[in-house]
Amino acid sequence: MKPLLLLLALSLATNSALLIKRSRSSLATHTTASTSSSTATAVEKTSASSASNPSAGTALTSEQKRYAPLWEKLRAGDSSVVAGLRAAGWPEDAIRTLVITQVTEQFRARARALRPDLAKAEYWKQNPYGNLWTPESMKAFRDLGREQKALVKSLLGTDYVPPDYADNIARRYGGLPITPDQAEAIQMVEEDYRILSAEIRGPGGMIGNTLLSEDREKLAFLEKEKTADLAKILPPELLLDFELRNSPVASSLRNQLTAFSPTEEEFRQLFAIQKTADEAAGYTMGGSQAARLKSQSEADAQIKQILSPERYADYTRSKNYEYRQLYQLATRLQLPKENAAAAYDLKADYDKRLREIPRKPDPENKKAAAEARAALVAETEEQLIGLLGQRGYDAIKSSGATWISRLSPPASAKP
Amino acid sequence: MKIFLILLLGASFAANVVLFKNRDASRSSSSLPPTPASAHDPAASLTVPTLSADIWALVQSGDPSSPEKLRALGLDEASVNALIRSQVDARYRDREKALQADPASVPYWDYRYAFSRYRSPDPLKALDLRREKTAELKALLGDDYRKNDDYVDFRTAFLPPGKAEELRLLIEDYDALTQSAASIDGGILLPEDREKLAYLEKQKREDLAALLTPDELLAYDMRNSNTTQSLRYQLAGLDPTEEEFTKIYAVRKAHDEKYAPQNATGTNSIFITPPGSASARKEFEDQIKAALGDDRYAAYQRSTDPDYRIFASLARRLDLPPERAAEAYDLKAALQQKINDFKPQPGTPPNEQRAAYLATITREAEAGFTQLLGSKGFEAFKENSSFFRRLTPAAVGATSNSTTTTQIITLP
């Protein structure tokens, strides 16, 4: 009897175990099936709206249908999918691409809803494309981007950086040793302040908007705060290097010193003085014109103290647009830079001698005045050609220096 | 009892068999296929496609069969597109990098620092490489391989996508050719540079005319030409309708083609004031007047004055009635007329008379503009316009000017 009873007990226990397992399996199948049916609709919708490749417009393959719920899970931020792909031996760069693609798809509709339709821009109005962005839409777009980035990081790890990121940082920040975390923090500060500035400047930014003095004060305050925020991200020495490469002060100084050709040491000295002057005048956007002129005059006085007389003369000349044009021309034609300076200095002599010729001569002196003017023009032209060559003279006439182009009409001008 | 137990045991064994078989059936009817990954935790309940090393090697090498292989794995179209593109990118990365500017090549104290970082030293080779890569992507993914890119070029956005892409490529070609022909310094062009650029501009116009219908070409020009860019700025104070803009554009374009000199790039230089002789400008104004009618022509004339643009902007910024801008403009015109009417009388030196006369007009201007625009608006106008600088002769000096300013600020 006993063996029979034991066998029966064993068989009944097996039945119970199989029944429990079956009911669990059935529950799981039901859950998957219901998830599948709800996601299948979404996937088919996505598929219907996409029309790219050779299979565009065709129905999903059976395998695409089978795995649609899996990609849906990934889009929803289920990190077990990433773990599953890793466990299945997927290469890491393929996993990254899949994650970024699915997350982008998840956010695409919201991003498209925020992005202005350029085809609807009122092209006949000032700044037609910039006007399509409002501070509110900029803010919403920024927030969406940050949400998307956070989802990618939750799936791939907080230390995830896209391929080429190091190269992009190097290019953007002039090769400075800025880490991906610092670059991301800098980008966030820049985004934030761009939006805050847009709120003050109004629709379309600076173009077509006249600023009130209170607007300038607010913009100056923002610039100060932005610098303070950057100082929290970068240590002092790196911050200075960053500003020397990326700040508006450095950018404007580089442009102004085109024909000065500073050494690195000169540039750093001039940058320090100019930065202090700009801050005193209310930064780049703040302050009045009078304040900026006063502050610039003080900065120039300091610069005079640190440069030799010759270099200070170079510095003063280099601030003149026409001299910069002559300097660039001399560089292009591989002429000595002294020729550019001599051509520039001709202007003072030309102006002085022109003033000596009566502008409204008596009728009897009219002919003599005209001849004197023609002789002066001819002499000046001859001197300029001597300094710049005929090609250089023709180039400068058409390119910039107003007083030279007025000597006689440029060759390309129509009657 | 024993027979009963044997029967019960037999039934239980039979149930064992049935349940065991059902267990297998249940597994085989599951919606997800078994894969090696399903054996592992934490993703044990998850089945993922298996990407074999062979298939991945095909994708990496750009094999034509690779998109289909990825689809067969169960990847959706967006993922197939992205995986193929990522591997094409990877294959081209080194060649692209070799054609990019070296960020360390231009020091930060050099004026070329800002633009040299992003400009290829050899734009034509960079363009060739881009085209080669595009051809490969198209071969793998079809012509609309960029369908998931949401970037839209504003210059071509008015066209349907296919035509817009053709136009974008044409513009990209000529941008590279122009960059290659022009001086990197961006400043001085030699006569031979101008010849090259003029030739390129002519060719570009021919290609545009071949690609676009006459209506599309007009639409392109009305969005992207130098004339349009100038008119957008000039007409900001007019706030034209599209129809008005179209009329003004047609008149101005014809005028520029006839009278504006050619600039460096072979297009007509555009000036805020229409170029040409006094009679040519009169003819231009008559045509605008005929196109717009008297009232809107008056508004057009106002809008060409930079100070009116400031008044219009301040009226918007300060939530003033829009007509305040026109009233401020009329005040400025009246004051300007008074300045022009000044005639010194015998006696006091003319310079002193003029200084006193301008000081009176300055006070009148400050009071008038403050009344129309408020003190904030007046200060902003003064800061942004040259009108008050013209009212301050050297003889009057800063003291007189600052005194009147202080008086105005205290006005209610």
Describe the protein in words.
The complex is a heterodimer of chains A (415) and B (412). Chain A is elongated, with a radius of gyration of 35 Å. Mean pLDDT of chain A is 82; it is low at 22-56 and 410-415. Chain A is 73% helix and 0% strand. The longest helix of chain A is centred in the first third of the chain and has 48 residues, at 2-49. With 415 residues, chain A is mostly helical. In chain A, helix 2 (62-75) crosses helix 3 and helix 5 (135-156) runs antiparallel to helix 7. Chain B is mostly helical. Helix content of chain B is 67%, strand content 0%. Chain B has 18 helices and no strands. Chain B has helices at 2-28, 53-61, 66-72, 77-98, 113-116, 123-141, 161-181, 191-211, 214-224, 226-234, 242-259, 278-292, 294-303, 306-317, 323-341, 350-384, 387-390, 397-409. The radius of gyration of chain B is 37 Å and the shape is elongated. The N and C termini of chain B lie far apart (116 Å). The relative contact order of chain B is 0.04. Residues 23-43 and 395-412 of chain B have low confidence and may be disordered. Chains A and B meet through helix 1, helix 2, helix 3, helix 4 and helix 6 of A and helix 1, helix 3, helix 4, helix 10 and helix 11 of B.
